[in-house]
UniProtKB/TrEMBL annotation:
It comes from the Eukaryota. The keyword Ribosomal protein does not apply. It holds the Pfam family Ras. It is found in: Endomembrane system. Coiled coil: none annotated. The keyword Repeat does not apply. InterPro entries: P-loop_NTPase, Small_GTPase, Small_GTPase_Ras-type. GO terms for molecular function: GTP binding; GTPase activity. Keywords: GTP-binding, Nucleotide-binding. One of its GO terms (cellular component) is endomembrane system. It comes from Heterocephalus glaber (Naked mole rat). This is GTPase RhebL1 isoform X2. Its main location: membrane. GO terms for biological process: signal transduction. The gene is Rhebl1.
């Protein structure tokens, strides 16, 4: 008898990157042609890997700004996150990767250069901080505000209508 495991996965990403299309294709094996903004959808699917059976519960999140605060259902009991971006846009989800607890350098397992490389590969901003010593704590959140504004400005400029 297979071992049954429950897994909750939250799908995150900026609006219109295809989060719902990805989840729907995985569960229903069909592509949704139209675009209908998502508030929140959930999908379930059973996947067998070897002798193990996984009951996946996918939470498809909204990409719209008015739904951008993550409720507890996106945090509590979550086993993993899928971060989706569109390959048709260089300007994607504003991400600031933060290596915290920088004050615990003697216990360090992840070197700063590794964090920088990961952030670079994601197209994200990288920072190291120490909440305990208040090192760059304010800067982390100031930086994410700047990154969000940069992406929003790009999308606003891209979608402007010009009359001639």
């Amino acid at each position: 008898m297979p071992l049954v495991r429950y897994r909750k996965v939250v799908i995150l990403g900026y609006r219109t990157v295809g989060k719902t299309s990805l989840a729907h294709q995985f569960v229903e094996s069909e592509f949704l042609e139209g675009y209908d903004p998502t508030v929140e959808n959930t999908y379930s699917k059973i996947v067998t890997l070897g002798k193990d059976e996984f009951h996946l519960h996918l939470v498809d999140t909204a990409g719209q700004d008015e739904y951008s605060i993550l409720p507890y259902s996106f945090i509590i009991g979550v086993h993993g996150y899928v971060l989706v971006y569109s390959v048709t846009s260089l300007h994607r989800l504003p991400v600031v990767l933060v290596g915290n607890k920088a004050d615990l350098s003697p216990d360090r397992e992840v070197h700063e250069v590794q964090g920088k490389k990961l952030a670079e590969s994601w197209g994200a901003t990288f920072m190291e901080s120490s909440a305990r010593e208040n090192q760059l704590t304010q800067d982390v959140f100031i930086k994410v505000i700047h990154e969000i504004a940069r992406v929003e400005n790009f999308y606003e400029q891209e979608s402007r209508c010009y009359l001639m």
